[in-house]
From TrEMBL:
Keyword Transport (UniProt): yes
A GO BP entry: amino acid transport
Every Amino acid transporter transmembrane domain range: 25-348
CC terms in the record's Gene Ontology section: membrane
Organism: Rhynchospora pubera
Pfam family, one: Aa_trans
UniProt protein name: Amino acid permease 8
UniProt KW keywords: Amino-acid transport, Membrane, Transmembrane, Transmembrane helix, Transport
Length: 388
């Protein structure tokens, strides 16, 4: 396996000081908050009703609050590693791996690199599967309305989502997908409000609050233990975005200091997300009790109007289109750096480097037309689709 330090090094094309000027950073606390909402407020929200059902009315909400506090605390610490040795005036660490290298040993760089990219890949796989499930739900609801489905089209839905990602993956970097993050954040609010509204409507129709203080009681001790651990894992997954925090922070303008702006954005993003998580999880549990589904939107096929459930699933798919890119862009950048390091004498790379040194403002347009840039996106997205 190639040394992770080789993947992330910037010394082949540019030294560290030059690499920090690779792009013009225009991000603000609000663009960072949009990126965080898109990264955090993902498909994990759909499983919160089931998770609260396993933990009960006391442990469920407490777990959500506890994980939000831990996530913000660790995010604030990680934000201070963007510059080293001083968090406000030190040299930039534009990627998570650069931050690890600045503070830890080379061996730990390799370990953290493997963990980071495995988490990123796992998240991409999860988003692809969730999008395919939503497409399948829409297909099923059309069948209920009189349209005949053509067999199990799960593979087709995965392929369609992959094709959409191939197109979006041609965007050069995180700075170029702020509009996509804003759109995804809006879509997440829409499908969450729809899920919340349908849960409240079902709760009112039931005439009483369902659920137990200690969770589902009609299970064996081993089943309750396993489900509780899985519920905690779902909640932890619903809050994760550490893998892309540094990359998001690298889009921020230098004044005020990036770590201060990022801490504010983390507070806004995690705080707002927690409010939605508590509301969604508790409302879903009150509506479904022990029958809360793993995907809250799939639980309304027989309760809510099919057109409204379709809209919610469409919004979820649109949200996942943007969320996928937030987690995929760091992988694309790492592959491109690896290709440049492996073939430094290639004409296309030499031309890009010389053009960049002559005019730094041309870098983004050059990246957009870089065949290696295109290759890495097609290779990674295609590999992801092949695995699924």
């Amino acid at each position: 396996m190639a040394d992770i330090t080789e993947i992330e090094t910037g010394e082949v094309l540019l030294n560290h000081e030059e690499e920090t000027e690779e792009h013009e950073r225009k991000g603000t606390v609000w663009t960072a908050t949009a990126h965080i909402f898109t990264a955090v407020f993902g498909s994990g929200v759909l499983a919160l009703a089931w998770s609260v059902a396993q933990l009960g009315w006391i442990a469920g909400p407490l777990a959500l609050i506890a994980f939000s506090c831990v996530t913000y605390y660790t995010s604030a610490m990680l934000a201070d590693t963007y510059r080293a040795p001083d968090p406000e005036t030190g040299l930039r660490n534009p990627t998570y791996m650069e931050a690890v290298r600045a503070y830890l040993s080379p061996r730990k760089v390799n370990i953290c690199g493997v963990v980071q990219y495995m988490n990123l890949w796992g998240t991409l796989i999860g988003y692809t599967i969730t999008a395919a499930i939503s497409m399948k739900t829409i297909n099923y609801l059309f069948y209920q309305d009189g349209y005949e489905p053509k067999g199990d089209a799960s593979g087709t839905f995965v392929l369609q989502f992959g094709i959409a990602q191939l197109i979006l993956s041609q965007l050069p970097s995180l700075e170029n997908i702020t509009w996509l993050s804003v759109m995804s954040a809006v879509m997440s609010f829409v499908y969450s409000f729809i899920g919340l509204g349908l849960s409240i409507a079902k709760w009112i129709a039931n005439g009483h609050i369902e659920g137990h203080v200690v969770g589902i009681t009609a299970l064996s001790p081993s089943e309750r233990t396993w489900n509780s651990l899985q519920a905690l894992g779902n909640i932890a997954f619903a809050y994760t975005f550490a893998e892309v925090l540094i990359e998001i922070q690298d889009t921020l303008r230098p004044s005020p200091p990036e770590n201060i702006t990022m801490k504010k954005a983390s507070l806004y993003g995690i705080g707002g997300t927690t409010i939605f998580y508590l509301t969604m999880g508790c409302a879903g549990y009150a509506a479904f009790e022990s029958n809360a589904p793993g995907n809250i939107l799939t639980g309304f096929g027989s309760y809510g109007p099919s057109w409204l459930v379709d809209i919610a699933n469409i919004c979820l798919i649109l949200h996942l289109l943007g969320a996928y890119q937030i987690y995929a862009q760091p992988i694309f950048a790492a592959v491109e750096r690896r290709v440049a390091a492996q073939w430094p004498e290639a004409n296309i790379i030499s031309n890009i480097c010389s053009s960049f040194q002559a005019d730094p403002n041309k870098l983004q347009s050059l990246k957009a037309h870089n065949p290696f840039n295109c290759y890495s996106r097609i290779n990674i997205s295609g590999h992801d689709g092949t695995i699924l």
